[in-house]
Amino acid sequence: MHFAKSELSPIANATIEQQIMRILVTRPEPDASSTQAALQGCGHRAILSPLMSIRFIKVNDLRPGPLQAIIVTSRNAVRALGQSAVLQELLELPVFAVGKGTARDAHDLGFHGVMEGPGNARGLVDVIAANANPAGGRLVHFAGYKLAFDLENALRQLGFEIETIRCYEAQAAKTLTPEAVGAMRTGHLDAVLLMSPDASRTYVQLVEAAGLADAARKVACACISPATAEALTPFNPDVVEVSKRPNSEEVLALINRMAEQFRL
b/e for 131-157, b at 16 or more Cβ within 10 A? Predict the structure, then answer.
């Protein structure tokens, strides 16, 4: 996908090295605030309008039987584990984490044998297949209720025994924040940061419900993955860009590249 710098309006008082961008951050908390701080650290202006909130579900016990490893395919799954009654009995097990941020959070929670995937569940299957044994015991996947990829089925086809435990639920926002609506209505937004296909779909629903579809199409969409970008296809924004890898660091790098293009 091609970034069209002409679609973004200039901002006064930009630095010579890099254009300041006004960015709508749509992640749920606590990631929204940490992303806002990272963007501001790069000189950008960030407005928060989380498109979903996270409700954690208690995990009080596990079914009997030998466990080989656990799988976490989001940072929220690690956060849910941190609040669960079963954490201590799992800390000595290997962990397969979907990507860099999830792996880092698992380390911080006290896990030591953490293996990092490429940033998506489909690619994590290859990491698990290369490092786990179908005859070595059950895998336990901690996940939310909505999954972009059927990891359980993919691993069963390879002969693994796997159990999926739902430990959190993402609940869609009903409206954009007043600050986001005002910035979009007055043309004071340059980009929106979208971190999942569900976020893209919710974003489109909310801007249309607010009567802001035309204004929103002029706001560049910075997407974490091709699937996130594809979810915007019916809406047809003027500019859609995809990060090189599906992680937060690469999305920030994408924003900075967009800002550099914006300056030229």
Answer: ebeeeebbbbbbbbeeeebebbebbee
Tokens (6 digits) for 39: 């963007």
24 pairs with which residues across the strands?
47, 192
CA 23 – CA 2 distance, rounded (Å): 19
pLDDT single digits (tens) 98-130: 999 999 999 999 999 999 999 999 999 999 999
C-alpha–C-alpha distance, residues 73 and 230, integer Å: 21
Which tokens is 90 given? 């799992």
> What's the token pair of residue 62?
């596990």
| Continuous segment of H or E residues that includes residue 262 | helix 248-263
Q: What is the pLDDT of residues 25-43, one digit of tens each?
A: 999 999 999 999 999 999 9
**Rounded Cα gap, residues 215 and 73, in angstroms:** 34
**All domains of the chain in start order, with CATH:** 5-51+174-263 (3.40.50.10090), 54-171 (3.40.50.10090)
Cβ burial 68-107 (10 Å sphere, 16+ → b, else e)? bbbbbbbbbbbbbbeebebeeebeebbbbbbbbbbbebbb
Residue pair 175/6 in contact by the 8 Å Cβ criterion:
no
What is the distance between the alpha carbons of residues 44 and 37, in angstroms, rounded to a whole number? Answer: 9
CA-based angle 50:52:57, to the nearest 5? 135
- Cβ atoms 34, 56 nearer than 8 A: no
Tell me the whole-structure pTM to 2 decimals: 0.84
Residue type (1 letter), 25: V
